[in-house]
Amino acid sequence: MLKPNQLLLAGVSSSTITERAQVKSCFRSMQLGGIRRIILQLLFVGCSFVSLSLAQTLPNHPNVVIILADDLGYGDVSFNGCPDYLTPNIDSLATNGVRFPSGYVTHPFCSPSRAALLTGRYQQRFGHENQPEQDDNNTILGLPTGELVLPQMLKPAGYVCGAIGKWHLGTAQNLRPMQRGFDEFFGFLTGESPYVSAPVFRNNTSVTESAYLTDAFTREAVSFINRHATQPFFLFLSPDLLSERQWGGSCRFYAK
């Protein structure tokens, strides 16, 4: 290897030597940076597996109930200052639970917001910014099957998972709740439904509900909780009550 003074004699300037040394040093830094990134990624993956393992082995799993209300505004509940009526049961959940006053939905309408909630990812990241049309034969018109949803994450930890109410994430067979990790489903697949003599699905079987639909959803939610009281459960309850006036909603709900 030539020494610096020999390089000068060979016609290589000191500035060239300095530049090459800087490039070599930069290359080494890039190598070290890449190694650090790989190590950090491996540590992250390792921690993820440890977290999943702990979730599967912890003896006490909290039950999880998500109630998703269509068209519910910030000021439509009394704990947020609604002056027109009281919502004591919802207020009780807020008082005795945890409130997230700065937690916002990711989209202003139904299906994309649901998709983000169940996946934990912005819907734009997987191309679900619009309402899917009903097409039972279109196997890609809905929440993409490559996206993991909450029941698929919770079931390995021993949870039984149920979905009740409005689905609106695809109507093709492969996009329905039972095919996306839920153990039980009672509700409708599209974005809307009548409230009297409603055509609904119980799991994968089409049935006609004789009760008023909001009452039926409540009945099924209570039944799910009671039947699985001795095991950890996840319930996704999505009634369509607040959108129901245009679909023949019961006057008794508006009289309260």
CATH architecture of the largest domain: 3-Layer(aba) Sandwich
Given as residue ranges, the uncertain stretches (5+ residues, pLDDT < 50) are: 1-19, 26-58
* Tally of structural domains: 2
Distance between the termini: 91 Å
- The CATH homology group name of the largest domain: Alkaline Phosphatase, subunit A
Walkthrough of the structure:
With 256 residues, this protein is of the alpha/beta class. The protein has two domains: 4-53; 59-254, Alkaline Phosphatase, subunit A (3-Layer(aba) Sandwich). Helix content is 36%, strand content 12%. It contains seven helices and six strands; from the N terminus they run H-H-E-H-H-H-E-E-E-E-H-E-H. A six-stranded mixed sheet has the order 1-6-2-3-4-5, covered by helices on one side. Strand 4 and strand 5 form a beta hairpin. The protein is globular, with a radius of gyration of 27 Å. The N and C termini lie far apart (91 Å).
